[in-house]
Amino acid sequence: MTIGIIGGGLSGLTAAALFAKQGTPVTLWDAGLLGGRATSQTVKGFTFNYGAHAIYGRDQSILRKLTKQLGIEVTWLDFSASRAKYEFSGHLTAVPANAWGLLKTEVIEGTNKVRFTWEIIKTILRVERGNPQQSIGQWLKTERVDEQVAQLMLDLASTNFFTAEPEKIPSDVYFEYYQKLFRTRKPVSYIEGGWQGLVQELERIILENRGEILKKTKITAVELTTTGFLVRDRKKQEWNVERIIFAVPPREILKMATPTTIQKFVTPHASHEPVEVFVYDLGLQPYIQTPYSYIYDRSHRAFITDLSHYDASLAPKDGQVLQAIAYLEHDRLEDPDYIGHVRTGIEQMLDVHFTDWRERIVAERTIKRAVVQEIKWKMGQGPLATQIPGHAGVAFVGDWCEGTGQLSELAFSSAVSVFNRWT
Q: Is residue 281 packed enough to be buried (19+ CB in 10 Å), middle (13-18) or exposed (0-12)?
């Protein structure tokens, strides 16, 4: 069996590494930089990731199994819950990320802490499963969940699904995700060196096992043949493979000349809303010492992380990398003043919590509309299946596909699903 993989993001690299490690001949084509959206950029000695490179629930994450299976060498840097704060009523309070945080936080009061704990227990035990016909916002109203408890449940969804509209998430998706995450002892972790470290390790595994990676190669056509598929790039170079994996989003697949069956299968998903955020990366010097490394502001739907607190390699000596991310409302993106308003909100947060940050800027980068997941979880939008029924030689992987978890976890899990099915 020979396999061709179109796309060198996390899902494509993961699939290629799995098959190559097993000894299957693999060719991967990528039109841009390996890693896709999981890329890092160094500016004046400061390393900025395209977006947040957090891994949620790493002790139960599929990435934990992959690192062992593939022999990937990464250093995990775990989030410090004691240094995480909520902006609440003009001051900071503890984030209820664990039992101690729930006890100390002011975002939820007295008996509501017990009610929130009970919701966690019911979710873990699968007593609560939600309803595929209801969004989590509708479910909370139907179940008459206390307002404070409901708001905290939606805040959680904002931070994990990276959305300004958590109430639109299908309730069954919400509970399935938190059934797993509520059991974790490692809620948030980072990879030392950012995404680039993981991308380089996946590339190493592929090449060491005689896989082929063709960079800056844009595939424009995939044709069905009697033995599999003929793949052609824009320079008219051709390759023959027995099976094909599309590790690019549906909208990119539609730009290629592919069999009608593939076109019809992906078309309904090509117009889905993506998850978009505003990203403001800052390289500061000297370091601003604070008692916190993460701040979430509900009013701005934004958070700031001091990434260099966890990973000193991201900044030069006595330097600091701050990453501010604001969740964007899709319906407001056409408003010419909206992005400016979002940036102003982030700057206000920085003014309050990182005094003198403006005077310490050495490097900065702004991404006004960074796509962190190709398909947003909302009613009426579902993931792409990893296989077309009746067409065993074609597969799809990526964070727009069926899998487990959210964000990068979907990329990894969809690739593993295809690997397990084909081996």
A: buried
Dmax (CA) for the chain in angstroms is: 68
φ, ψ of residue 410 to 5 degrees: the values are -65, -40
Checking if the pLDDT of 102 tops 90, the result is no
Q: What angle do CA 128, 130, 135 make, to 5 degrees?
A: 145
In angstroms, what CA-CA distances link 110 with 106, 117, 145?
Answer: 9, 12, 15
Token pair 């059934």 in the structure block, residue: 179
- Which residues on adjacent β-strands are paired with residue 69? none
Structure-token match 């919590």, residue found? 353
Q: What is the pLDDT of residues 50-95, one digit of tens each?
A: 866 788 888 888 888 898 999 988 888 888 888 999 988 788 998 8
DSSP string, 45-107: TEEEESS---EESTTT-HHHHHHHHHT----EEE--GGGEEEEETTEEEE--SSHHHHHH-SS
In the three-class reduction of DSSP (H, G, I as helix; E, B as strand; rest coil), residue 195 is classed as helix
DSSP3 helix / strand / coil % (the chain, rounded to 5): 35, 25, 35
CA angle (326, 314, 76) in 5-degree steps: 85
Integer angstrom CA distances of residue 90 from 86, 134, 270, 347, 407: 10, 34, 42, 16, 31
